[in-house]
Design a protein that fits this description.
Blueprint: H1 3-12, E1 16-22, E2 28-33, H2 35-39, H3 42-56, E3 63-67, H4 72-82, E4 85-92, E5 95-98, E6 109-117, H5 121-132, E7 136-145, E8 157-162, E9 167-168, H6 174-177
Parallel strand pairs: 3-4, 3-6, 6-7, 7-8
Antiparallel strand pairs: 1-2, 2-9, 4-5
Helix pairs in contact: 3-4
């Protein structure tokens, strides 16, 4: 996907936020990508989702899987474009699990998708759960990669846009030092 076009779509959907944010990792950042706002605009999000599906069109995939909550729509739409079954995994007692009747058969090939990957911890938990059920993870994909090279899954990883946004330890955060109030967006038990 063209990077300028991706930025325009994120901006037009109000998904690219500026301020002082606490990330799910506990670290801080001055920019946040709220992909829920992008995904609330199917007319804009479709370009991202089609881009991922087009990238994997020739691959042998049985299931498109994602962590809840951010990856659910991504999984559904990419799976729809590919004509494949979609599932999402949720944490149950702190462990990423298959629930709601979802299952993976031995040897099924799984593409794991997410909205934004920063550390990759959620998709790696999904990977571990898929492997634990006998599935075979073939690749990862996300709308936005903001890992700055930290996410190295050892498998192919495709993303629509790469955004190198600085992340600060709260003890060294220049926004905290200025006294800028912190906001906790996201879906991991945060506001």
């Amino acid at each position: 996907m063209d990077q300028k076009r991706a930025i325009k779509l994120l901006t037009d959907s109000n998904a690219l936020l500026t301020g002082h944010f606490m990330l799910a990792s506990g670290n801080h950042s001055e920019r946040y990508i709220q992909c829920a706002l992008l995904l609330s605009r199917p007319d804009l999000a479709v370009e991202f989702l089609q881009d991922i599906a087009d990238h994997f069109k020739g691959d042998s995939i049985d299931i498109v899987a994602a962590p809840a909550v951010g990856g659910i729509i991504v999984s559904y739409e990419v799976g729809r474009f590919l004509g494949k079954r979609t599932i999402f995994l949720e944490r149950e007692n702190g462990i990423m699990s298959l629930r709601r009747g979802f299952g993976i058969k031995e040897g099924e090939k799984v593409l794991i998708v997410e909205d934004v990957i920063t550390t990759g911890s959620s998709v790696l938990e999904v990977r571990d759960a898929v492997l634990g059920k006998g599935g075979h993870v073939i690749a990862f994909a996300s709308l936005v990669n903001r890992s700055a090279g930290r996410f190295k899954p050892g498998l192919p990883y495709y993303f629509c846009i790469d955004m190198d946004i600085p992340i600060y330890n709260p003890d060294d955060c220049p926004l905290c030092q200025k006294g800028t109030p912190v906001v906790k967006p996201g879906s991991k038990g945060l506001v």
